[in-house]
Amino acid sequence: MVKSEEGQEKITAGELDVWVVKPKEENDPWAVVTIQIELENPLTPESILQYVGTFLEVDGREFEVMKAPNEHLVIAPEIALRELRKSFFKLNLKFEQFNVILMPLENFNDSIEEYKDSKGI
Q1: Which residues of 7-33 are buried (b: 16+ CB within 10 A; e: fewer)?
Q2: pTM above 0.85, yes or no
Q3: Separation between Cα atoms, residue 34 and residue 113, nearest integer Å
Q4: Please, which of 20, 78, 86, 89 could form a disulfide with 104 given CB 3.0 to 4.6 Å?
């Protein structure tokens, strides 16, 4: 657990792959892109939102997962992402409010290159 300045314990995000995004301008904040790959487990809103309010420490910097400017990339088969979209819709949740980006496994190579280019990774 990471201690906050107020002495409260913060929940760590656990084992997620992470990319660090350096700021374009000197005064802009650093950011991270957390990566969740789901190939076999069913995707549910809970499996994605379990990381809301959790923290990562990378290179001595602390980042709150799914809080802007940080993003959370979910990579899974298209059919699983389609079902996840339906579940989010039924719960009246939007991926944008959690900075979640869905990336279909079927066209992963093209999608990830475009994403990395847009972020300067």
Answers
A1: eeeeeebeebebbebeeeeeeeeebbb
A2: no
A3: 16
A4: 78
- CA dist 18 and 65 (Å) reads 10
16, 18, 23, 28 alpha-carbon torsion, rounded to 10°: 10
Q: How far is CA 106 from CA 39, 41, 75, 86, in A?
A: 11, 17, 10, 19
Q: Per-residue pLDDT tens for 63-116?
A: 999 999 999 999 999 999 999 999 999 999 999 999 999 999 888 888 888 888
22: left (phi over 0), alpha (psi -120 to 50) or beta: beta
The b-or-e profile of 85-116 (16+ CB within 10 A means b, else e) is eebbeeeeeeeeebbbbbbbbeeeeebeeebe
95 — phi, psi (to 5°)?
-60, -35
Instruction: Please check whether residue 2 is in contact with residue 9, taking contact to mean a CB–CB distance below 8 angstroms.
Output: yes
Helix (H) or strand (E) holding 58: strand 55-58
Q: How far is CA 62 from the centre of its chain?
A: 15
Residue with tokens 């475009």: 114
